[in-house]
Amino acid sequence: MTCFPRPLALPAALSALVLAAASLPASAGTPAPVSGPSPFAACKIRGEKGKNYLNAVVEPWVDVHPTDSTRLVAAWQQDRWSNGGSRGIVSANSTDGGANWTRVVVPGINKCSGGTGDFAYNRASDPWTAISPNGNAYVMSLTFTDPVGNKPGVNAMLVNRSTDGGATWGNPTVLRRDTDPTIFNDKNAITADPADSRYVYAVWDQLKGGVDADGGEGAGGAAGVAGAPDGYPDGVVIARERLRAKMAAKASGMTPATSASTFGPTFFTRTIDSGQTWETARIIYDPGANAQTIANQAVVLNNGDVLVFFTDIPETGPVKIRYVKSTDHGASFGAPVDAAAINGSLTGTITPDRKKSVRDGSILFDVAYDRNSGRLYLTWQDTGGGGVERVAFAMSSNSGASWSPPAIVNKTPPSPDKYRTQAFVPSIAVDGNSRVVITYYDFRNDPPRSRSKELADYWAISCMPSEADCRSAGSWGNETRLTSTSFNMLNAPYANGLFVGDYQGLVSQPARLRAVFGIATKLNKTSIVTSVVP
């Protein structure tokens, strides 16, 4: 018989340290770069208000070819302005699964990208990408000119198509263009049918009636609504302030005041011929006067049904994530269905020590669909009764007919300082094995009372439905740190808050998931990087 020495007993304190080390989050290693130096450094447009941040790249989105996971296309805002939009949209494509990327300017959408005539817009924003099974890629963007007086200027929803997987792009197609100074189109998304290349769907919200170029509504704004400074509209700011005005009024027992009738319906258009032509955009949901939608996003189910999700901010009543459904590839849509209520904070995300505002994902959301099980998943920022922004999750096992109660799932450690428990800008995706992954930022590694730095990291957590009930917060784990080192959020460009993007990219490849996200690198400079979620 072989004898082994008896293991030494560890002191209690040392045992605790060993257990703590065993529970530390995994690391995905050093993120790889996706963005690079600005191609617009020489582009100067006279008379622009606000501050431009050269080499500030924000708000990436990414999509993967539905049948070839080695082919990806991402896009982001390049050279962000302090008061809305950027100098242009830059895309990047990868043919080796995301190890290497080739950057390409999305052409002709505004002045800095070569746009002339009706396309001589000053700024571009809100990039969103999609790839069809035939390899056609699409980038949708918002472009706009200077305000007219105190009203928004000409603005448009555009889409560029690539027939070579994003290596080159064709000229932009106008999906909607408005010259009426009381109208502003905003917060768009584009989705390709993963099984039928003929169909691609584009959605957005449109703010109409009394919208000022400073972001307010009417004379003085609705219930104190404020927007982007220096004369540019900002639909996300308007939506957040509308929500906070409702929350403040509810807390005081009053009804939010409105000084003018404003509208914010969901617009929709589609192509049924692989992007050669697009139908006239139309309203598919109207929340009524003094209300709006935002964060519209389409999902295509296995049977071809199209669900368009949105945040619905009514004049009265709770703010909800809802959807409308089409059973005929977008030819018509049914009545809205509730998915989840949003309970935001009055401040949004703020840095722990300096209490600087962070432009986050509040009132927005992300949605994912598992093609194996047919389940739908949602994530969004919610206080969960804790008073600060955290990450909420809900799911549907019956194609959206009913939804689980929200669960706060982020794994940010408890702290005596509630602002170190914040988690923000969540994204969600499902891999080929039905594993559900959520990514988000938090401040857990920021040292207390360090006012020169507000350190943030990007994280991933997951739940495997075959092994646990994802409706329960305790079922979420396998936390992975996607940033190899913390970055200083104070270095992010300031655009109605320290800004790395209202949303970040996350896709299935499908054996793994890939995150494409922003980090601050130097003062007013950011980079788009990518990490694999193991």
Features:
2 helices, 4-stranded antiparallel beta sheet, globular, disordered N terminus, 534 residues, mainly beta
Q: Based on CA inertia axes, which overall geometry fits?
A: globular
Number of helices: 2
Helix content: under 10%
Strand content: 35-45%
Overview of the molecule:
- With 534 residues, the chain is mainly beta.
- Helices cover 5% and strands 38% of the residues.
- The chain has helices at 12-22, 235-252, and strands at 26-27, 32-33, 57-64, 72-80, 86-94, 102-105, 123-131, 137-144, 155-162, 173-178, 183-192, 200-208, 266-271, 282-285, 292-300, 306-313, 320-326, 337-341, 358-359, 365-369, 376-382, 390-396, 407-408, 423-430, 436-442, 455-463, 477-481, 487-488, 498-499, 505-508, 513-522, 525-533.
- Strands 1, 24, 25, 26, 27 and 28 form a 6-stranded mixed sheet that branches. A 4-stranded antiparallel sheet has the order 2-32-31-30, with no helix packed on it. A 4-stranded antiparallel sheet has the order 3-4-5-6, with no helix packed on it.
- A hairpin with a 2-residue loop joins β31 and β32 (525-533).
- Mean pLDDT is 91; it is low at 1-22 and 216-229.
